[in-house]
Structures are given as structure tokens and as C-alpha cells.
């Protein structure tokens, strides 16, 4: 088994094809194909299902990818250790967040201290955050439900109650609070299934034998916000995520308070990476302040 063969396999697997892998590694496609073929032949195993339109991993290929993910991530951590003075002057920190605004104050300070580091932030619900971390598609996650288990290092940011919100032109916009029973009679706009805000709200209502049935289901918090702003219904969000929007008004839910925890998380095995550690340390120092 050779390093170049594993590198070729890994790049094809994460790129989704031999051509894209060749581009990423600055090699020719025949060279990449040859390295993967030799690996398969040497160990008499099929790593990819090949057809004209796409390349997919076999069961053996998926198991090997899980190993090479850890292998190349460890290699990257070793490189960061050996080039520590440069690690915080360049590189990329990938963040997937269920609500990016929880990061704004941290991002500003981080960029000011490490201007050479590129930060990418993309949106996703709790399931997306967890899966992205496990698949090494993200370095840090931000989510509204602290995961159980020992796989993650967790830094709690805040805890705020779930509230309802409506357009300023909505007939109930003048209400300070609404019961779950009253809300169940209204047109509701809710996040997709997999959203912890939705799950907690439905669990709260279910405990009182009340069903909250959305008339509109939207993917992503911003989509819900825009739909509610149009007057199409009432939405739900944690108080910390409501923010400032002149088109909307908050409405307290008259029920036992249900809190949403917001936390930074990363895989414990990757928490030693220089960029990850620098970001977590900064977030921790700011939360203390």
C-alpha cells in the first residue's frame, strides 16, 4: 500500500469523480485512475462503483474513506504543529451553523487577530451540523441542541426561550403573548423536520395534547423569517435569534418556558487543530467577558 494510492482514492471519494480529483491533485486523470486501480488490484477489493455518469463508493470504499478522513486530518494537524507560526497566518476555518448571528461578535474579533485566515460559514440545521462534523466537511459547528456523548468538545454560548413572531400587519401583532391552544388555531410557518426548535416546540405542545400543524414548512431560518414578514403566518425562533427587524414583532408563548441552548462544537479528536483551538479559545474568552 502506498501513500499516493490512498491519496488518490481519498480525493476521488471526496470529489465525486476521477476528473475532479485529478484537478485537485494537479495530476492527469489516467494517473489517478491508475493509482486507484493498483490499490484495488493489490488487495482484490472494489472501492468504487463506476458508471458513465457518476462514481460511488462501495461498502468497502466507504469504510476506507472513514479511515483516510482520519489519516489525512491527522496529517494536517501534524503539518499545523510543525508550521505553527504559519498556521494562524493562513488556512481555512470551515463553520456550519444553524444561526450564524451567534458568531458575529466572535468572527469580528477572530478576523481582526488572524486576518490571513479565510473563514467560510454555511447554514444548516442540527442534523446537517452533526453530519458535516463527522464527515470532516466542517471544522466547527454552531447548533441549538448540545449533543450527548463524548465525541464532541462543547462550548455553550447562551440559552434563550422559544418565542413566536409575526408580521407587524398580522391581526395578532398587538398581542403580548399567546397560548399554545391559540397558536394551534393560526396559520403557522415552521422549519423543516430536523430543526431542534421545531422539535422542542412540538414536544411542548404534545405534552398538552395540542397539535401544531404548519401550513407552510420552509427550509432555513431566513426563509421562515421572510415568509412570516409577508404576512403568511406566525413563526417561531429562539429569543436570541429574533434580532432586529422592523417588519416583525415578537410574541411570548404562554406556556412553560422552553429554552434553546446555543453552542459551539467540534469533534474532540480535531480540537487540537491550531485554527479550531484559536477560535474556541477566543469564543471562550469572550463568553467570560
UniProtKB/TrEMBL annotation:
Record's signal peptide: none
Keyword annotations: DNA-binding, Transcription, Transcription regulation
Domain called HTH lysR-type: residue spans: 1-58
Gene Ontology molecular functions: DNA binding; DNA-binding transcription factor activity
InterPro entries: HTH-type_LysR_regulators, LysR_HTH_N, LysR_subst-bd, Tscrpt_reg_LysR, WH-like_DNA-bd_sf, WH_DNA-bd_sf
Cited SUPFAM superfamilies: Periplasmic binding protein-like II, Winged helix' DNA-binding domain
Keyword ATP-binding included in the entry's annotation: no
Keyword Lipid metabolism: no
GO CC terms in record: cytosol
Family according to the record: Belongs to the LysR transcriptional regulatory family.
Protein name: LysR family transcriptional regulator
Amino acid at each position: 500500500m502506498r501513500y499516493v494510492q490512498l491519496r488518490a482514492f481519498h480525493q476521488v471519494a471526496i470529489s465525486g469523480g476521477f476528473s475532479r480529483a485529478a484537478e485537485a491533485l494537479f495530476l492527469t486523470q489516467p494517473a489517478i485512475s491508475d493509482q486507484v486501480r493498483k490499490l484495488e488490484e493489490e488487495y482484490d477489493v472494489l472501492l468504487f462503483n463506476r458508471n458513465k455518469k457518476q462514481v460511488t463508493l462501495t461498502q468497502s470504499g466507504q469504510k476506507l474513506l472513514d479511515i483516510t478522513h482520519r489519516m489525512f486530518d491527522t496529517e494536517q494537524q501534524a503539518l499545523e504543529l510543525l508550521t505553527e507560526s504559519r498556521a494562524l497566518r493562513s488556512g481555512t476555518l470551515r463553520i456550519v451553523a444553524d444561526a450564524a448571528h451567534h458568531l458575529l461578535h466572535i468572527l469580528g474579533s477572530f478576523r481582526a487577530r488572524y486576518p490571513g485566515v479565510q473563514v467560510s460559514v454555511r447554514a444548516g440545521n442540527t442534523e446537517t451540523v452533526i453530519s458535516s462534523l463527522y464527515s470532516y466537511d466542517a471544522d466547527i459547528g454552531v447548533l441549538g441542541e448540545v449533543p450527548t456523548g463524548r465525541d464532541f468538545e462543547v462550548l455553550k454560548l447562551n440559552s434563550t426561550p422559544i418565542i413566536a413572531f409575526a408580521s407587524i400587519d398580522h391581526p395578532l401583532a398587538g398581542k403580548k403573548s399567546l397560548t399554545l391552544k391559540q397558536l394551534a388555531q393560526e396559520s403557522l410557518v415552521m422549519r423543516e423536520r430536523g430543526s431542534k426548535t421545531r422539535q422542542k416546540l412540538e414536544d411542548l405542545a404534545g405534552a398538552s395534547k395540542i397539535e401544531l400543524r404548519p401550513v407552510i414548512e420552509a427550509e432555513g431560518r431566513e426563509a421562515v423569517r421572510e415568509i412570516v414578514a409577508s404576512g403568511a403566518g406566525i413563526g417561531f425562533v429562539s429569543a436570541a435569534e429574533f434580532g432586529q427587524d422592523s417588519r416583525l414583532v415578537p410574541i411570548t408563548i404562554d406556556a412553560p418556558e422552553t429554552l434553546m441552548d446555543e453552542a459551539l462544537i467540534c469533534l474532540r479528536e480535531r480540537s487540537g487543530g491550531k485554527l479550531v483551538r484559536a477560535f474556541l479559545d477566543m469564543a471562550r474568552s469572550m463568553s467570560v467577558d
